[in-house]
Design goal:
35% helix; 4 strands; two-stranded antiparallel sheet; two-stranded parallel ribbon; mainly alpha
Length: 149
């Protein structure tokens, strides 16, 4: 985050408040905050970057990831919509998508079966899911949302 600040960035949206085998900051806040230099899971009102954490639905002690990417591709559309409606009651939801995840003709590379599943599962339906979300929900840029709050 310090590197982003050094290059003039004002906000970021890369902290995922869950723990997976690859990434995550499970103790990070679920809402917009300013990460501390010493501990990015802690809010610092004087922090240099505003963080818009990737969206999860908090269900008791469980944070269910729904933001996009793999989760957009694997979760049923009805569940995504239900979760987003719940989240939007408390805070704005963020959805991200990697452009390659919307193209079913993406060339496949030779990787392990688990990596193939994570990388390619659901690509054929991702664009239709995204279009359906765009129809049902009002979306805005992170900058515009931050200007509103």
């Amino acid at each position: 985050l310090q590197i982003l600040k050094n290059y003039g960035f004002k906000y970021d949206s890369s902290i995922f408040p869950i723990k997976t085998m690859l990434y995550g900051v499970p103790d990070a806040p679920l809402c917009i905050y300013r990460p501390s230099k010493e501990d990015i899971s802690q809010h610092d009102p004087n922090g240099g970057i505003t963080e818009f954490p990737l969206t999860v639905l908090d269900i008791g002690r469980l944070n269910l990831p729904i933001s996009g990417g793999f989760y957009l591709r694997i979760l049923p559309l009805r569940l995504l919509k239900l979760c987003m409606h719940q989240i939007n009651k408390k805070r704005p939801a963020i959805v991200y998508v990697h452009p390659w995840e919307t193209y079913s003709g993406i060339p496949r590379i030779n990787i392990s079966p688990s990596s193939q599943f994570i990388t390619y599962h659901g690509i054929s339906n991702a664009l239709a899911k995204l279009e359906s979300l765009l129809i049902e929900f009002k979306f805005n840029s992170v900058r515009d949302v931050l200007d509103e709050v």
